[in-house]
Amino acid sequence: AGGQTSLMACIMDAICKFLRVVRRIALFFLLAGFVAAPNAAGAATFELGETMLGIPVGHYIDVALSPSAETSPDSILAQADAFRPLDMDWVALGPVSGSVWLRFSAHNPGNTVIAWDLDLHIPLSEHIRLYEIRGGSAQPAIAPRFVPFPAFRLRADPQETKNYLLQIDMQSPHLYRVKAWSPTEFASENRNQSVRFGMLSGFIAMAVL
What we know:
- The structure is a single chain.
- It is built from three helices and 13 strands, in the order αβββαββββββββββα.
- It is an alpha+beta fold.
- The strands form two sheets. Strands 1, 3, 4, 6, 8, 9 and 12 form a seven-stranded mixed sheet that branches. Strands 2, 5, 7, 10, 11 and 13 form a six-stranded antiparallel sheet that branches.
- A hairpin with a 3-residue loop joins β10 and β11.
């Protein structure tokens, strides 16, 4: 039993080290592209749908970095050259001494109200704030729910376009996806994740014992 426990610990440690290396490499390429594209156009507007099954929205996000976590949302919005299109599904962030800012727009092309969930695979230890941009000014929006990762329940009226700004204070490097879900599908996915996590935990416990 002791040998099996030691082996599992070594395997988990190796996996964690590998993931840290992958995250740092992804962050390097993100920052390299960020610096190399000073005149890039802004990202396109994300079109909402009645049914969304975890659609990656990275290609619709503009990203900016600020040296201080005390930077205000209005001051970062006022810097016309601060944002660059992310232009990838995967988001690689941190660690940074200040804040990472994600700016995006969502449009409801239909004739009915659309409620949707913005799903962020970011650790709970990170500070996350969502703002809605109105008239060029950032207004605090709703607080995130944790299911288990942070998520925001948003809505858009028919033919309405909403502009958002997300502030993240990253304390460690992370590689994750930002996804859009319709509420029913999001709830179903969370239940499935809980089942998968329970099965994986049980498998690891059996292997160790």
